[in-house]
Amino acid sequence: MRKMIHSEVVFSPEDLIIVAGISLQTAYKIIKELNHELEEINKKEKKNYIIFRAKIWRKFFRERYYDEKFLTINDLEKKFKIKEWEAKEIHSTIKKELVAKGFKFIKGRIPEKAVLEKIYDYSEEERKNENVSKIVKF
Question: pLDDT for 25-80, tens place per residue?
Fold first, then answer.
């Protein structure tokens, strides 16, 4: 049985453990970093984002980490039935591209959405359509 996320609006450390497969310590670190970014945005841009002590807005998390579902190299191997070196190449390529665009990363994980877009050459809108033909890019 899949564990439930506590809120549709914010992530708690426990939620990040579920979606990203990380430790509690790493979850708190990510939340602290993102809340610090929100504080800076509030100061510089005169915004009034509410900042929680141990939670982060899901939308802001997605904006900074590209998605809220992540894959490890082992996940890539199993899900796409590829060899370890192929999974590492995909991981490395996607990470470089997203870092160049300004996204953050969780060590050893890449956003599932980016993998699907890269491998199957389709976007979020096309993924919603069940009749999409999947063309492998790698």
Answer: 999 999 999 999 999 998 898 888 889 889 999 999 999 999 989 999 999 999 98
- Tokens in use for 3? 């564990």
Q: Which of 6, 55, 4 is nearest to 34 (CA)?
A: 55
Mapped onto helix, strand or coil, the DSSP state of residue 132 is: coil
- CA separation for the pair 101, 135 (Å, rounded): 24
Residue 137: the pLDDT is: 47
**What secondary structure does DSSP assign to 93-132, as a single string?**
HHHHHHHHTT----TT-EEHHHHHHHHH---HHHHHSTTP
Strand partners, 70: 111
